[in-house]
Amino acid sequence: MKRLIDLLFNRRGDEFAETAIAMPVIVLISIALMNLTMAGFASVNANNAANYAARVGSVTQQGAGGAAYSAAMQSVSNAPIGEYSVSVSGGGFPGAQIAVQVDWSVPNYISGLLAFFGGGLGGDFRGTSTSVFRQEGW
């Protein structure tokens, strides 16, 4: 009887059981935070590139669309995270609006882990940043 009571109140091995339950949750949350941080970083890069390119296009007198496209591509080429595509429309004469759209995508590492647990989001994180400036003329 004493052995049974000792076995019931023995606390050895509790740390291992608690770690086995808590560790997957901590790892999943850590990976989710890193993945969402990468998406936020790519979004800020795309927004900065769109604003910079629209500004360059608005002050360029000849070939505003080409200058804006080159500026956006140069800006996102320095970004270490994400894939970007740039489109430019408008411009050409003073007073016209020049619009720069930068689309971004970041791989979704969470979906593979959630699929293991029976869920999943599928696909990459994607977004669009757009900036519109009025072309200056003098």
List keywords for this structure.
3-stranded antiparallel beta sheet, 138 residues, rod-shaped, 3 strands
Any overview of this molecule?
The protein has one domain. Helices cover about 55% and strands about 20% of the residues. The chain has 4 helices and 3 strands; from the N terminus they run H-H-H-E-E-H-E. A 3-stranded antiparallel sheet has the order 1-2-3, covered by helices on one side. A hairpin with a 6-residue loop joins strand 1 and strand 2.
In short:
By secondary structure, the chain is α+β, with helices and mostly antiparallel strands. The chain has one domain. Strands 1-2-3 form a 3-stranded antiparallel β-sheet, covered by helices on one side.
